[in-house]
Every structure is written in C-alpha cells, then in structure tokens.
Design goal:
Number of strands: 0
Largest sheet: none
Order of helices and strands: HH
Radius of gyration: 14 Å
Distance between the termini: 20 Å
Number of helices: 2
Structural class: mainly alpha
C-alpha cells in the first residue's frame, strides 16, 4: 500500500502540470480543438487525484 501524498508533493505536482501546460500552449502555432481537449483531459487526470489526496490529508 502506498503512502498518501503530502501537501508539498500535491503543490509540486500541480505546479509541474501548470508548467507543462504552459509549454504546450506556448509551442503550438494555434490553439485548436484537439489541443484544448488534451489539456482538459490532462487536467482531469491530474487534478482529480490531487484534489482527493489533498482532501484526504485534511
């Protein structure tokens, strides 16, 4: 069984996701549907488990 994420780990993972999204947005020539959809899906895959881990720690 794995240990729950600590608050600094949750914050670091969130900031890493934000930086990666910025890199994707800055490097694409146009923001079109597939790019926006992939950012939304990645947000769901990253932010939902981080939110659950954060709420579990409180």
């Amino acid at each position: 069984m794995r240990r729950p994420l600590s608050k600094p780990q949750v914050i670091c993972l969130f900031l890493l996701w934000v930086v990666l999204c910025y890199i994707v947005i800055a490097t694409v020539p146009q923001l079109n549907g597939p790019v926006i959809l992939s950012l939304l899906i990645s947000g769901g895959l990253v932010l939902i488990p981080l939110y659950k881990a954060y709420k579990k720690n409180n």
